[in-house]
Amino acid sequence: MSKKTTDSLFSYPTARAFVTGMKKQSLGDYKNIKSYFRSGFPQLADIETQVAKLLNVEEKQGESLLLTNSGMSAVATALDIAHLSKDDIIIHGQVEYSKIYDYINEDLPKREVIPVEVDVADISAIDKALKKYPQVRVVFLETVGNGPSMPVLDIEKFFKLKSLRRANPLIIIDNTLPTDSLLPLLPYLRKNSDLTIIAVQSATKFYLRNEDTGGMLYVVSRQLRDTLVVKRTRIGATPGPALVELFRKTLAGKKQFDYEIQTFVRNTGLLAYACKEADGAGKKFLVGYPNLPRFPKGIAPVFFLTPGTKTTMSAEDLFYKLEKEGAFADMIITESFGFKKTGVSHSARLGGYIRIGGGLEPRQKIVEIGKRLADGLQNL
Fold first, then answer.
1. DSSP SS3 for 181
2. Phi, psi (5° rounding) for residue 12?
3. CA atoms within 13 A of residue 369's CA, in its CB half-sphere
4. Domain 40-250 part of CATH 3.40.640.10
5. I need a surface site. Which of 1, 37, 44, 354 has the fewest CB within 10 A?
6. Res 66 pLDDT > 80
């Protein structure tokens, strides 16, 4: 019998080949079969391998990285495998990416799930919460909080908590701000493989260069990986061919990727310090940026400006005033960060703030931008 011609990327030449492919698909294998896009497909598997190399995920050792169609869908995929329901408890940070914070504090309570907030920078507070709620189902923490106070999780001390092992919850660690170039998570996942840990990140800024949204999950357990593959398919979080091609277009090699991340952070730090040294810092305005000795290359690609106690100006007023003073010259006003040019945005959440993310400009250009920011702040 002659083989039938194929007319799509996921059609098969024979009935037997189709059944064989579907059996492999049911096992989460989409690397070498023509799966319907929602279940994964060879091009997706190839680009996941490329991204895995940027994070030092060792696929041969059973470690896995999965891409999703947004950072929020990566979080939703991870959270959904816990099947949270009435009276289940999720411990999470007081300062988080706004959509995650709202999802945990507004959407989950509609299922009668109980959110418990902790100061991520205070390990004793996390320990106290775990002891108070030993039945906790999920712990969700950002390594660096996306808000003005920018709490930094001491991840080594966190994983040493005896209360964590006694509770044995699903642990989701969001490493979007630092990413692997600044704070590698895999060593902690490997060392604590007796726990159920999922690392999540947005891929939008540093991997897709803000040309589309994307996300990722990575784990050191094959069983956990297979569970996430099924969940990703069921909630519609699998990237399609167009997003995969964009990943292929935008991804840098490991050396260039790390260089760019470190440049973003170095430039952000220079701008934050320029603001901290301006007259009125701590009174007319506050600068939020972690300065921790254990991260000599920096830890965050953004910093925050908020009104101080010695002013009646709101964050929104401050935003307009700085623009009028010329502080945003040579910057782009944009909601995201991780652009070639330094970017600035305003948000009304958490009492209102300005967020600035350094770009890839040469050091001298960053010094000039920092001076304009400092001058604008001193004129408040």
1. helix
2. -120, 150
3. 27
4. yes
5. 1
6. yes
As a whole number of angstroms, the distance between CA 319 and CA 314 comes to: 9
* Distance in angstroms (rounded) separating the CA atoms of residues 90 and 167: 12
Q: Which residues share a beta bridge with 50?
A: none
pLDDT of 59 > 60? The answer is yes
**Domain 255-378 bears CATH identifier 2.60.120.10:** no
pTM (predicted TM-score): 0.93
Task: Tell me the per-residue pLDDT of 170-191, one tens digit each, with 9 for 90 and over.
Answer: 999 999 999 999 999 999 999 9
| Run of H or E including 322 | helix 315-324
Domain ranges of the chain: 40-250, 255-378
Please tell me if the domain spanning 40-250 has the same topology as the one spanning 255-378: no
Radius of gyration of the chain (CA): 22
For residue 153, give the 3-state DSSP assignment: coil
Per-residue pLDDT reduced to its tens digit, 94-123: 999 999 999 999 999 999 999 999 999 999
Q: Tokens at residue 346, please?
A: 């305003």
- Count of H-run helices and E-run strands, the chain: 14, 12
Q: Report the percent of the chain where pLDDT is more than 70.
A: 98
Q: Locate 303 and state its tokens.
A: 């910093």
Paired tokens of 313: 């100006």
191-248 pLDDT tens trace = 999 999 999 999 999 999 999 999 999 999 999 999 999 999 999 999 999 999 999 9
Number of C-beta neighbours around residue 4 at 10 A = 12
